[in-house]
């Protein structure tokens, strides 16, 4: 099970978001809150490491990483696939 | 699966309507007549832009429902290449105008104000300039210091724009700014500012090695009492990713292709002249010409394949926002900008002193100076760093005929 709080922990490790993570709702657009292309790559790397998953190229669009809730769902989906 | 990425570069992605082509060629004739003066005097290519307006080429990208012609990126790219052969500055002005228009067409359709603006662009042939570069930020497109300061339903904006290409001649400027004074530097919007809504105080003069006619002076831009509806609501991050990045790299690449193709044509004409003078012998420059023609074909294939990938992804935000798509566009830019310089240099080597000298039928000095801007116009190092970052997570398909 992937919790929203796990995703928030990962976000706090990012330079571009660490100051604002606690003020974000689960549905705020992270790109509007300061996440940039460098940060989004760092985010993907951190998620891959933390949850032992690999994002396929098809999941590497902006949309898969736009909100905390969407990230949780994407990660949870990948974990299920890899477990299956 | 589409077969468009094959290297059959002689087959255009989507053959532009003959009419557009012919209109572009008429503008190119006017542009060519004044290209040397534009370069020498570092002045705006006014005759070429007047011809663009007369041929109504500034509004072709606007959808038909708004009075335009719904021209595709490939059709516009073809005109960029046609103009690039004649006058690099005029071609670049045309390209930059359509890069901005692409943002309006892609992201302004759900705003009544911007739809009316597009109707005006088509009807009145308004010339659009871009203001992204800012003092303290430099060329980093995705960060701004200046901010939209709202008061009621209007806003104020002051921007130290260290570069606005043809800012003094434009009818409309699309400027980036932070969404509000407290927003992060990367939380940007794109605002449309009409000429009569702003004041521009020149702070720097564009006196450069090449591309002298783009008149990319520095300005202090001030706007006051501008209706808030003129702010595009889409985050600029999305506008940059979904329309600007692709339009910039593909249309610039097409301009540079036009410059390089002109140089190779001059080299070919030179070698053919030599061959006629001494029948039975292959002129010494022929081998160098073959190399230049070889590289020109590779360059063309890269631009054409990029256009095809874009036309394919168009309208699909997921495809346009994918990391692999950004990497592809970055690679198009860094590849063709380097090739363009190399090709013009090779062509100069073929024609020799006749190319080095101004005022001969083979002069290539202007083209060489102009094309040297290609690797610098958004520095290739900046783009390669961005690609390097994206490659940390891309997996790659290993396929030849698709992404």
Order of helices and strands of chain A: HHH
Q: What's the domain count of chain B? A: 3
What is the count of DSSP helices of chain B, taking H or I runs of 4+ residues? 12
Q: Specify Rg of chain B, calculated over alpha carbons.
A: 21 Å
Major sheet summary line of chain B? 4 strands, mixed
Helix content of chain A: 40-55%
Proportion of strand residues of chain A: under 5%
Number of domains of chain A: 1
CATH superfamily of chain A: ACP-like
Task: Give me the CATH architecture of the largest domain in chain B, please.
Answer: Up-down Bundle
Instruction: Give the N-terminus to C-terminus distance of chain B in angstroms.
Output: 10 Å
Overview of the molecule:
The complex is a heterodimer of chains A (about 80) and B (about 400). Chain A is mainly alpha-helical. Chain A has a single domain (about 5-85), classed as Orthogonal Bundle (Non-ribosomal Peptide Synthetase Peptidyl Carrier Protein, Chain A), CATH 1.10.1200. Chain A has 3 helices and no strands. Chain A has helices at about 5-10, 35-50, 70-84. Chain A is globular. In chain A, about 35% of the residues are buried. The model of chain A has no long low-confidence stretch (mean pLDDT about 85). Chain B folds into 3 domains: about 20-125, Butyryl-Coa Dehydrogenase, subunit A, domain 1, CATH 1.10.540.10; about 130-230, Butyryl-CoA Dehydrogenase, subunit A, domain 2, CATH 2.40.110.10; about 235-390, Up-down Bundle (Butyryl-CoA Dehydrogenase, subunit A, domain 3). Chain B has 12 helices and 8 strands. Chain B has helices at about 20-40, 45-55, 75-85, 90-105, 110-125, 235-275, 285-315, 315-320, 325-350, 355, 365-370, 380-390; strands spanning about 130, 150, 155-160, 170-180, 190-195, 200-205, 220-225, 230. Chain B has a 4-stranded mixed sheet with strand order 1-4-5-8, with helices on one face. A 4-stranded antiparallel sheet of chain B has the order 2-3-7-6, with no helix packed on it. In chain B, a hairpin with a 2-residue loop joins strand 2 (about 150) and strand 3. In chain B, helix 6 (about 235-275) packs parallel to helix 9. Residues about 1-15 of chain B have low confidence and may be disordered. The interface of A and B includes residues 37, 48, 54, 55 and 60 of A. Chain A: This is Acyl carrier protein. Chain A: InterPro entries: ACP-like_sf (IPR036736), PP-bd_ACP (IPR009081). Chain A: It comes from Methylobacterium platani JCM 14648.
